[in-house]
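Please, structure for the following, as tokens.
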Amino acid sequence: MFFKKITLNHFIFLFLVCTIPVFGQQKITDFYLSNIKEDGSRDWEVEGTEAYIYDKHVDIDDMKSNYYTENDTIVITSDTARLDKENMDVFLEDNVNIVNEDGSTLQTESLDWYRSKNRIETTDLVTTKRDNMQITGTGLVADTEVKSADFTKDVEVLMPDKETGEVTTITCVGPLEIEYALGTAIFNDEVVVNHPRGNLFSDKATLFYKNEDKAIEKIVCEGNVKIIRDENVTFAQKATYYGASEKLILEGRPRIIYFTDKDSDSGGL
């Protein structure tokens, strides 16, 4: 087995078998590429079963990349990938997966990884899971660790309660802006909160949750708020729901319509 090492601008190319020129390109099996920081620690590394080297890019099959941060190692895989030789950005396609050390995952069909900017983007359907929270949406812009993320449209969030097993589902047209470290998520446009005990509709909703178990601390809904519980309907401009106490506070000319056993209705507050 032939071993070749090339160092260029702190990038280390390790070709584990000989390169074979094919019509102006080079084909490499067992491809490996890594970047070493100035202090000697690893920054990132990319490998693949095969790679085709062109003037401006490298096409990689069965790509796997490890991205090292101070507190995490992120594993990124895809069936195919294209590496830009100038800026080292990567376009991944087919069965794209990202896994963090804490078990958080992301799946999509294509992804742009802007390595120097620590940013990932996709316009495809994407699903992320972190602890017991699952988010599905179309389009995503996030940091590589997915600690801060904007889901573009058609968003659905599932939040099972670990104690009761009850599932809260929140949907919106989008975008959804989420800060995992802060425990906040902002839902925009046609927000619907489905809970086993009732449904809530609003123009915007801000979710506050506990990072430890993703339990809902409170949900603040604003704009054209409508709450349906059993056969009763409540309207307001703002509603704040507190998860622990299950307390609901209405603001902005609240109005309640409720039905008696005789199906008569009455205008409320």
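The mean pLDDT is 83. The chain has two domains: 1-100, 118-269.
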